[in-house]
Amino acid sequence: MSAHRQRRPWRRPVLAVIAAVALATPVAAFATGAPPAVPDADTTTARAVPLDEAYYDSAVGKSGGELKTALHAIISQQTKLSYAKVWDALKATDEDPAHPGNVILLYSGRSQAKEAHGGGTDDWNREHVWAKSHGDFGTSTGPGTDIHHLRPEDASVNADRGNLDFDNGGDPVNEAPGSLSDSDSFEPRDAVKGDVARMILYMAVRYDGSDGFPDLEPNDRVDNGSAPAMGRLSVLKQWNDADPPDAFEKSRNDKIFAIQKNRNPFVDHPEWVSAIWK
Question: CA–CA separation, 179 vs 270, rounded Å?
Fold first, then answer.
């Protein structure tokens, strides 16, 4: 775990926003990744409403299945992207703060030029953290294009990860320092273990089988193949606890909210992982 990461308080005043207004805001900030401008809902009584008190209002105080159901209803209100639009979205969401012309690759940790993407060996491409073959949703608009789990990654590292489940152990992965893999699992570098866990669990809440896509669920096994499942849940929970959201992950969540109009609740509330999956 990165030494600079700190666990934050339960409530996080990320944006002054009223949920109904924020969800209807046009995608005006797509190119820059800046949070969308939000007009006053009532100019006579306008006040700042912390995000947790608005966006997550119907989820606060719940746990278990009730919390999962409430969060699904909230985050299902989203703008869907085409697979082609994902390229531009990732250039905004994963921009290197120190080098704005670059993106940071998820497993490799390398900063690479935004335009150096494609299918070449050293290009970056679109990694589906929830492997698209786990449920066979491919690149269909929906789970296949949801940028909460799509990240830039070196093409060869992406191929090495393939559709492996997540677990601890294995041999070093070429071009991805700190990452390990074996025949049935992949372990990302320490700095993004929690990020990976929260992306997987977001997908399990967002896609529950009610909108024509498979019901995605985590389980406590590996080698899930084409089943709409991803493991190992017990390890993902450990990663979530050991590697809390850092500034980059929080900023990425804000940028996705500006583009896709929904949030990853486990970035805002990592404690909700254990509240749902006890």
Answer: 23
Low-confidence ranges of the chain (pLDDT < 70): 1-52
Element (H, E) at 88: helix 83-93
Global pTM value:
0.84
Three-class secondary structure of residue 228 per DSSP? coil
Residue 112 φ/ψ, nearest 5 degrees: -135, 145
DSSP helix/strand/coil, 104:
strand
Residues 152-188 have pLDDT tens digits of 999 999 999 999 999 999 999 999 999 999 999 999 9
Sheet strands side by side (includes 185-187): 165-166, 185-187, 176-181, 171-173
Q: Which of 211, 172, 205, 207 is nearest to 188 (CA)?
A: 172
Question: CB count, 10 Å around CB of 165?
Answer: 24
Query: What pLDDT does residue 22 have?
Result: 37
Beta-carbon contacts of 16 under 8 Å, excluding residues fewer than 6 positions away, are 38, 48, 49, 50
Q: State the Cα–Cα distance between residues 88 and 112, nearest whole angstrom.
A: 15
Q: Tell me the one-letter amino acid at 200.
A: I
What is residue 265's three-state secondary structure? helix
The two structure tokens encoding residue 250 = 């929080």
Tell me the DSSP string of 154-183: EHHHHHHHTT-EE-S--EEETTEEEEEE-S
Kindly list the distances between the CA atom of residue 53 and the CA atoms of 146, 150, 270, in Å, as whole numbers in the listed order.
25, 28, 16
Whether the Cβ atoms of residue 35 and residue 1 lie closer than 8 Å to each other: no
Tokens of 179: 């990452």
Rounded to whole angstroms, the Cα distance separating 157 from 159 reads: 5
Q: Using omega within 30 degrees of 0 as the cis cutoff, is the peptide bond preceding 47 cis? A: no
